Amino acid sequence: NAGVTQTPKFQVLKTGQSMTLQCAQDMNHEYMSWYRQDPGMGLRLIHYSVGAGITDQGEVPNGYNVSRSTTEDFPLRLLSAAPSQTSVYFCASSYYRGYYEQYFGPGTRLTVT
Amino acid sequence: GQQLNQSPQSMFIQEGEDVSMNCTSSSIFNTWLWYKQDPGEGPVLLIALYKAGELTSNGRLTAQFGITRKDSFLNISASIPSDVGIYFCAGQRTGTASKLTFGTGTRLQVTL
Known about the structure:
The structure holds 2 protein chains of 2 kinds.
Chain A: E1 4-7, E2 10-13, E3 19-25, E4 31-38, E5 42-51, E6 54-57, E7 64-66, E8 76-78, E9 87-94, E10 103-104, E11 108-112
Parallel strand pairs in A: 2-11
Antiparallel strand pairs in A: 1-3, 3-8, 4-5, 4-9, 5-6, 7-8, 9-10, 9-11
Chain B: E1 5-7, E2 10-14, E3 19-24, E4 29-37, E5 44-49, E6 55-58, E7 61-65, E8 71-76, E9 85-93, E10 101-102, E11 106-111
Parallel strand pairs in B: 2-11
Antiparallel strand pairs in B: 1-3, 3-8, 4-5, 4-9, 6-7, 7-8, 9-10, 9-11
């Protein structure tokens, strides 16, 4: 199993550009989530999904969209990038009943200039 | 906002020493977890705790779910260089189904 994969590894955007961060898992996990990690802030939940077709907001959802058309994929879309979205983004997945035992991807480091 | 306070923020210890860190909140948590993050990688789950008072070990690591359900502790015995990294506590707060809250992390550095 590849586990949780994320692409790209690094990305630089200009303010106002849009892009999609990709996340995929091959463990047949129902639960998937996106976090952002900023210095001194730990990880903050952006959006999560408890199954295909179901998504919900986390702690910091503004400026981000998600969809879950398949069990395997959970892309995160930045609609109009802002410097405040410069961060490291992590995708995670787990079985729903044990959603706290999450497996994390390697992260995407995003810089918005 | 951030619900979990971790201390210390960073630690610099010598190889072989024991390490203690803790996580506290003003809210009640139903589950406590401890993750470790190595540089450039995503966090990895170390220990999960599900009941108040529970004490669980994973090799040299021992964690406890506080009786009040508002805190948790992680101890590392006989530290080694590969223990270097950032340790995060996380938990599911009562009333926030399907969401984990993470602490701000404790950065551990080990010298030979």
